[in-house]
Amino acid sequence: MDVAVLLEYGWVLIILIGLEGILAADNALVIATMVKHLPQEQRKKALFYGLAGAFVFRFGSLFIISFLVDIWQVQAIGAIYLFGIAMYHLLKKYVLKSHLKKNEKEKKGSGFWVTVIKVELADIAFAVDAILAAVALAITLPETNLPEIGGLDGGHFSVVLAGGIIGLVIMRFAAGYFVVLLDRKPGLETAAFLVVAWVGVKLGVFALSHPDVAILSQDFGKGTAWKLIFWSVLLLIGIGGWFLSKDKPNNDMKDKEENEEVLKETDILKK
């Protein structure tokens, strides 16, 4: 591969690392919250099963999607799913937040195995989100001479695989620190889900420019103009998420205590 192609692949990998970091932190926070009601020893086991499930479902999703990715119906469903899941999270965060918090206070904690099943189901959703987003970012990269795996070019598969491994490493070792960053700059979580929605749009454009659909020209789906539009909007979302998010004051004791509790929960993943 020439230098320009390597730089493009490297840039997509950097975007994936940032996106995976924020989503992994959000995932770790959700899982930690789901097991919080259990006794300490059961909590450790549930988190261990959750992490094991994350590995299995992440790589299972990758290999399944690699064989289906060239089917336009799968691309369309993936686009709708990514856009829908992003809108759901944003709606839950900004519209349904107070209602959900009230319900959470009234809800009694589940037993150990029910909690484990809930964690595994959450893992499946997280795995699908992450892999679909990575595939959508990778499939418009230049093709390489590497052998195909399923329906994916070998280079595309390598980027998606690297992103998946990085996401798991972040969940394993650095999720707690990303949680603290998200608490300090909450706009980053919103930006992450806007990125997921925008990646869903990209996958939708790719589906619409598929030869069997041809609503958009194939040249547009893989062309320079669309790439410039996509990366410009993506960059604006990232910059906006960072600079428009107000830092929370360090002396907020409630947030500080919550951060310490989250770090304790996510640190269990390291043991």
What does this structure look like?
The chain is mostly helical and 271 residues long. The protein has one domain. Helix content is 79%, strand content 0%. It is built from ten helices and no strands. It is found in: Membrane. This is TerC family protein. Belongs to the TerC family. It comes from Domibacillus epiphyticus. It is a multi-pass membrane protein.
Could you give the topology of this structure?
Layout lengths: L2 H33 L4 H29 L3 H23 L2 H10 L5 H27 L15 H31 L2 H22 L9 H4 L2 H20 L9 H15 L4
Instruction: Estimate the helix proportion, in percent.
Output: over 70%
In total, the number of strands is: 0
Compute the number of structural domains.
Answer: 1
Q: What pattern of helices and strands is seen along the backbone?
A: HHHHHHHHHH
**What separation lies between the terminal Cα atoms?**
41 Å
Largest sheet: none
Q: Number of helix segments?
A: 10
Large-scale geometry: globular
**Structure classification:** mainly alpha
Low-confidence sequence ranges: none
Output mean pLDDT: 75
Nearest-angstrom radius of gyration?
A: 19 Å
Beta percentage is under 5%
